Amino acid sequence: MSANADRTAEASATGSSVSASGELTESNGEPRWLMVYRPRRSPLYATIAAVVVVIVHVVIGALLTISDTGAHFQTSDQIAMGLIGVVIGGSMMLLCRARLRVGAEGVGIRNLLGERVFDWSIVRGVWYPDSGNWARLELPEDEFSPILAIQANDGERAVAAMAEFRELQERFAPR
């Protein structure tokens, strides 16, 4: 089933609709997610690091049989070395998945693997810890969830994202 068909099925189940661009909208015509934020610098750094790791592993794998070291490396060892680099590089690319979505239904945080959506009734706020690298979503009873999407190294862009989050929190959070 295509992504648009999935959105259409979800829209009919929730009383929403799908816009011409494929964006899920609520019955009042407003987009489901009013804020979607992704970091800029860390995906770039992760991509560069992943490419370097893969290249290094491929080069090392190619050089395994150049000289006699006493160990007998075969073609399968060379391939395995390259594949290890691909696995490590692919794992580093998980840092590119970070995303924050904010809308009427709550706050969606996708860090490395999965996305969690927090209802506005349990969201207390968003803040940076002292000397922290990324923001935290404050929850009841001193719990929090890290928001890898809003990172300190994005500078003013991250500050603007925090301000936009707080505006949406004022709009949607129960008082």
Molecular structure report:
By secondary structure, the chain is of the alpha+beta class. Helix content is 40%, strand content 22%. It has helices at residues 3-14, 41-63, 75-92, 156-172; strands at 17-18, 24-25, 33-37, 99-103, 106-110, 115-118, 125-127, 134-138, 144-151. A hairpin with a 2-residue loop joins strand 4 (99-103) and strand 5. Residues 1-22 have low confidence and may be disordered.
* Strand content range: 15-25%
| Rg on CA atoms, Å | 22 Å
Average pLDDT reading: 84
Strand order of the largest sheet: 3-4-5-6
**Portion in helices:** 40-55%
Overview in brief:
With 175 residues, the chain is of the alpha+beta class. The protein has helices spanning 3-14, 41-63, 75-92, 156-172; strands spanning 17-18, 24-25, 33-37, 99-103, 106-110, 115-118, 125-127, 134-138, 144-151.
